[in-house]
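task queued by scheduler; priority normal; single chain, no ligands, no partner chains; default sampling; output format set to structure tokens
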Amino acid sequence: MSKERARRRAEREAERARLAAARAEREAKAARRREMRDRLVRPVTGAVAAVLPRPARPVRVARQRGYLARRRRTENAVVAVLWFLVQVLAWILLDSWMARLGVFLGSILLLPVLVTIVFDRRS
């Protein structure tokens, strides 16, 4: 019984050693790749970064999450799509440039009013 356990332990240790060697080889390869990339890219990015202005503060990439933020994004998307459809229909159905311009200006002026009426949060 102990010989069997010793054999299994030796197999497990050999497998662990093989996995560790493979991991070390992958990490060494990644380190060589990073080093090569840094050697090639750093002079270029350094020159570009020297020319470009730095932002005063970090740029926020993440957007707000949660039910209210998702609902607001959905509402804004619906309003934008409906406004775009009105513009497309005006361009298709109306021949006069003045009429198209009137629809465009009217929709821009009426959009905040309609959004306030439809999506009123106070009630």
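post-processing summary
- The chain has a mean pLDDT of 88.
- The CA atoms of residues 92 and 100 lie 9 Å apart.
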